[in-house]
Structure formats: C-alpha cells, structure tokens
Amino acid sequence: IVLFVFNVLVASGFFTWTLLNRNHAIVRASQLPFLLMVSIGTMVSSSAIIPLTIDDSDVDPSVYRSHPTPASPLSLDGEDPGANAACMASVWLYCTGFMLTFAPLFGKMWRVSKIFNNRSVKRMIVPSRVLVLIILVLLSIDLTIVLVWQINAPLQYRREILVFDNFGNP
C-alpha cells in the first residue's frame, strides 16, 4: 500500500504541476491533455497494487464448498469469488493504466516521426484528433485482449501451502 500511495502522490504532483504551468511554452508545446493522460495512466496502473493485497484468509468458511480443514477457512481451489475478482481487477487496472501511459507517448512519437520524415518543403501539421484516435485504437485493442482473456480463462486465486504443522494444519 505504501508503494501505491507513493506512486499516486508523485503522479498527482506532476498532474498538479502540469495544470499550474499549463500556460508555459514548454507545457503548451508538449500538449497538456497528453501529459495529463500520462499522469492518470500512472495512477491507474499503480492502483493495480490494491487488489493484490486481497486474500481469502478472513472470509467466512461457509462460503466454500470444500476447504482443507474445518479450522482453516483458506481456499485451496480458487473458490473465493472476491479473491478471484481481485486477481482479474489487477490485470484490468494495470493494462488500462499502461495503455493510458504508453499510447500518448506512442502517438507523440508517431507525430514527431511524421513531421521529421516529411519530404516536402511544406509545413506538416498532425492534428490532435489523429493522436486521440491512435490512443483510442491502442486502448481498445488492449482492452479487447483482456476481455477475451477474462471470458476464456479468467485468473483464479490459488493458495499453495508449503508448510504444515505436526497436526496437518497450514
């Protein structure tokens, strides 16, 4: 959780700094919406840490159809729906955050490449809506892959107990 808080504080600081300096020539040249999207993407991908902190150790044993011992409510076979949802939520958050961070950078690099590889003498302008379209296409491809993954083979929480006491308890 500390790493999550640190990442969000740093990203929020850059987000705030960018907003406060939005009239500065460098920030305007860097295109404010895309800078803000990188900060938001960093916060979203950092939030993938939170679902990874969920486990099945403090869940009511009656939730499970089977568990190792009556004294131990730990799920060994992925029966905890909350932990299963947390596993997939971390994938959704990380992939979405990564694309919100990567796609604006990719779009901006594509724009620079188009401008510098322009063979004509005319000034070339690549509108921001083209960059937004690139971002939306990349994000939709990524989210489609994650959706197909979740439908066909969703992640399940599995607990692997490596050490047992003398009585067979984990």
Automatic annotation (TrEMBL):
Entry's transmembrane regions: 6-22, 34-54, 91-110, 130-151
G-protein coupled receptors family 3 profile domain boundaries: 85-154
Pfam families referenced in this protein's UniProt entry, alphabetically: 7tm_3 (PF00003)
This protein's record includes keyword Ribosomal protein: no
Membrane topology, record value: Multi-pass membrane protein
Superkingdom field: Eukaryota
GO CC annotations, alphabetized: G protein-coupled receptor heterodimeric complex
Membrane recorded as keyword: yes
Record keywords: G-protein coupled receptor, Glycoprotein, Membrane, Receptor, Transducer, Transmembrane, Transmembrane helix
GO MF annotation list: G protein-coupled GABA receptor activity
Primary localization class, coarse: membrane
Localization of this protein: Membrane
Protein name per Swiss-Prot or TrEMBL: G-protein coupled receptors family 3 profile domain-containing protein
